[in-house]
Amino acid sequence: MAAVKQLIRDFERPSQADFIRGLEATLQESIAYLHHCRPLAVSMQNALRHLKWQMTQLPSALSDTDAKNKLCSAIDTYILEQIELAGKAISLTIQTKISKGDVILTYGYSSLIHKILLDAHTAEKQFRVIVVDGRPWLEGKEQLRRLTKHGIECSYILINALSYMMPEVSKVFLGAHAILANGAVMSRVGTAQVALMARAFNIPVLVACETHKSCERVQTDSIVYNELGNADELVQDSRNGLKKSLLTNWRTKKSLNLLNITYDVTPADLVTAVVTELAILPCTSVPVILRIKPSEI
Description:
Helix content: 40-55%
Structural class: alpha/beta
Strand order of the largest sheet: 3-2-1-4-7-9-10
Shape: globular
Strand content: 5-15%
Number of strands: 10
């Protein structure tokens, strides 16, 4: 959004009508470039939809300078309300669910989950964290590094040891890439496995997700829509060191194809509740969120 603000400030056109049309065209080019680099996240799509709606509300008599300032102010307000304040509200809400002596399990890295755990630690809540991680990104290492830096007691395991550690866990906190209209949660690949294991051990699963990540799309699996990562990342194995991987020359094998998907979809029945800035809601309430949120968001 900061880049979009700079684009707006640098843009110039001789008349108001040309300004709006030209800005929309330039913005569309930038969006197309970003999409070419990587598929746009649901939150990015919602933010851009909000910005385009704000552009349609500009009075025709408004000067270029005032229009730029108004759009930049709208971006700042969106960031403040939909991201920063929403994160604080979720953190305060979910802290009420942390009891003394809890063992909280989380998967990979989520900036919102990190904020929640850090705020709970600052509030002198007594708990322990188990960070579950999985290849090929191993993002849990970053979560572990940031939590231990602040003195939070943590354990680190790979996802294949999940069932071994589950008897110790009291709650599962998960982040989300998006929450879909059918209540399914789209998140980093491996999240669905964590939620399924938690259900098997009858452990509550709380998903922290701001409402600006709500999506009208419906999915029951992660095959119909996903993001593909670099297949060569699956070949790399830090345990082998200098040893050659068996998959090094996988491209030469015509019958072999490596699939590195980025997200998976967790069914609504595996999630106990979704914690939003509005309230703690069941996944089935997502259509209500979509209905009460402003149409431009």
